[in-house]
Input
Amino acid sequence: MCGIVGYIGNGEATPLLLEGLSRLEYRGYDSAGLCVLAADGDLEVRRVLGRLSGLEKEVEAKPVAGSLGIGHTRWATHGAPSIINCHPHTTEPDSTGRVAVVHNGIIENYLELREELQAGGRVFCSETDTEVLPHLIDRALADTDDPLTAIAAALSQARGAYAIGVILKDQPDTLYAARQGSPLIIGLAKDKLVIASDVPAVAGAITDAVYLEDGEVAALHRNGSGKNGKGGQTFSFEVRRLDGSSVTPEITPVTIGAEASDKGGFDTYMLKEIHEQPRVMRGLLERHIKAGDIMLDLGGLDVTALNRVLIVSCGTAYYAAMYGRLLFEHLTALAVETDLGSEFRYRHRKLDPKTLVIAVSQSGETADTLASIRMARSKGCKVLSICNVEGSSLVRDSDLTVYTQAGPEIGVASTKAFTAQLMAFALLILRVARDRGELDDKEFAAHLKDLNDVPDDIHYILNRKESIQPIADKHHSGPSALYLGRRFNYPIALEGALKNKEISYQHAEGYAAGEMKHGPIALINQYMPVVCICTQTEDEVYEKMISNIKEVEARRGRIIAIATEGDKAIRDIAEDIIYVTANREAYSPMINVVALQLLAYYAALARGTDIDKPRNLAKSVTVE
Output
């Protein structure tokens, strides 16, 4: 959830720390701070409450020079957002301390450790769980000459999740790092080594990356005789496990550039990422469809031997999972269930080797989803992940992966990652249905044709986005909104409501339209916007949806319809209409959701909220 960056190199640490933190601010923006080992040997700490811009001003007013440093942007867990709770944390409140730590995660036994450390005379300044770490490391340093051994010994006493960066006052040529349950990478370049919560934070500054595994600690060394990183240095690193055994890590080339994290001329990351969806979808289609066939590598998975599929995910990815379940049921005879990662692991699910578990996650670091698939694997299940991040924990813990290849998604509210998950499900399920003999060649070709139309169908909406803004301006001021959909578009109603809640802070609820009479209809009056996904279908579902909309009309609800271009019937009952192009109902969610993304976007714009960094939310939920 929090963002970490660290630097050791031939140049000044502060500019890279600030640049890296700016790209990680989507992970946390309650407070920000950095610590640099200055030329005089002191640990210089700068911390501010609020956004990173405040830290930039603080550093401008009180410059700090040095070529070794760590930085942090915080999403509060233990302790309210405040200066005393801001990272980095040290063993002393001023520059006399010899250990500084930044941390992402939660130390679950911190109260027990804190009481033990206080009993030994150590003084604490914050309310955080993190502050036990510098004290544990400082205490362990008294028992060994090897700092890496001391850090490992300290961490062995901690239970929970962590990714940490550490600098020591008496180790001016080494940056330390470790991970357990929270992501952390080592970035390699000729003139520097860095650590970061993810690759995009330091893209453009590095050529290769090492993805640290759980239970690993690392030391990043600057070698050479130059003073304070100047002249003739080379760089090396070593990785060990907590038990002291050595690790030979895999080095992965970095293929994304710094421009992947730019706004590209758009006002916000979210608007840029909404506009990237046709390119992302077309890229998936071109990658996996060759000569009229789906060339999706299933890694030898025998889909004919499966009798059950269980899809596990959290948040927006859960709505993608709901879509996946509906499409599986539509095209195959498999029994399919969905479950929330946060609930799955605490239930006694009946799992066996004939159950395929599919995990869906943009980041591949969602703590609850990871815990769920690890439990499933312990029961003998194969795990297939649908993920956006190569080298992530989810990918490494899965038997096979379908990459969504959406590129870095910086906006906290997911857009392109979600539609890419829907497309990945469509490609996967079509392949499974064909391999199981449940879809003949003619039907298969017809599905591929409709899938190939999706990017252009999304372009149609983007080219007419100016017509959506006045609708959002008209309806944004109410305290609440209702979203209704049926069958394949029921998960999209849920996702549309979530987007509105996330970025405009207008309360919104999504429902299966047929369930409206079982409670939500009591909320409808002349002030209530009701967003109805009413695109035309191949059967009676459209007529049922029209009937539900008539029920809203009878209660004077303010109807906003997502409708198929050319639909005349909807004009008589909807106050406002967002038109989309016709496609097969099974693939309409990939199109319709873009209209809802834009509706939420313009509502947030009208309400004056921070669209890219909505309050209380973080992009990647790496703690339970």
About this structure: The two ends are 10 Å apart (CA to CA). The domain at 263-461 is CATH 3.40.50.10490 (Rossmann fold).
